[in-house]
Amino acid sequence: MAQLLDGAGKLGWVLLKSVIRFVFMFFNNCVAIPSYCLYLVLLQPLRIWDSSTFWHIEGIMFKWLLAMVSSWGWIAGYTVTEWGDDVRPISEEEAMVIVNHQSTGDVCTLMMCLQDKGMVVQKMMWLMDHVFKYTNFGLVSLIHGDFFIRQGKAHRDKQLIYLKDHLEKYYHSRDRKWIVLFPEGGFLRKRRETSQLFAKKRSLPHLTHVTLPRIGATHVILKTLSAQQENGSVGSETGTPNQTGNKRKGLQWVIDVTIAYPKARPMDIQTWIFGYRPPTVTHVHYRMYPIKEVPVEAEALTDWLYQRFVEKEELLTHFYSTGSFPSEEGHKEAASRQMILDPVRLCIIQSFAFASGYMWYSVLWYLYCCLF
What we know:
Elements: H1 2-42, H2 44-49, H3 51-74, E1 78-84, E2 95-99, H4 105-113, E3 124-129, H5 138-144, E4 147-149, H6 153-171, E5 178-181, H7 188-201, H8 216-225, E6 253-260, H9 269-274, E7 280-290, H10 298-322, E8 336-339, H11 343-371
Parallel strand pairs: 1-7, 2-5, 2-6, 3-4, 3-5
Antiparallel strand pairs: 1-8, 6-7
Helix pairs in contact: 1-3, 1-11, 3-4, 6-8
GO biological process, one term: phospholipid biosynthetic process
Family: Belongs to the 1-acyl-sn-glycerol-3-phosphate acyltransferase family.
Keywords: Acyltransferase, Lipid biosynthesis, Lipid metabolism, Membrane, Phospholipid biosynthesis, Phospholipid metabolism, Transferase, Transmembrane, Transmembrane helix
């Protein structure tokens, strides 16, 4: 009986905590997202007069919004430990980031672990499934200039054309630096069986922890954003000016990001919202490749990308059996570093969001009273 009462008490606490978190996040969204939109409406004259300053300010507010999402996980004890290459020194250089995709929590994990990478978040473009357009954060991503891609054979060719046009229109004009995509084209649990059947027919490696990537979006990004010479190889500059008029170097790096969850149990967005899972450490492994090592021609790029996901499979297999990623060549043990969010900064951002929400509510209510 005592055990039953203890279990009921713990369940009651989890439910109460979940309700409190949901209410807080509901109001957090209600004040932060409208404030972001209204500030940008107010700054539209600046967009015409000095677009680079406008998008710089927008990027700062975008980073703050992502910090709020990160704080939801952080206060529940969901943290990130990083492995592999240190990507902070290249935060000001252009890069394409390829990530394995297990659940909706992958996006939240990236939002958290990129917060301490300089100006990366505010100058980042995301490629995500079109379903995210209809979430609470969809309007923000739409304004920021992210691209929503529709999956499926029926849409594939048109989507790649739309992606190319989107990159040409928004990537340089808004001074973006990093572009993030999930080449697998869907969640692991949904694509694994289809991917394994495809691999069996083509005599490709059998993968369990990742799926074979799709080449289309990666190829378009490389062709559009990399500096290419007449022979098809990667050059040093795109010739496309940025907002300051200087020539851009184009993509300089491909960053291969592998996300691993303890016991291969991915966290989804519901976990981040309700916080019902005990404190959890998500592990993120980085590996950087200079763009000159990445082929642009479709067939060679396919082989190269497949090899990256075979390596991801090996990394994840090692992690799930040992609890850590393998060490780099020349090192006996793999080095890890805990990604730490600044609680003071998070409190300031949240306070600013709620203060802004109150301010805009007061302004709009005053205008309503004056008009009606």
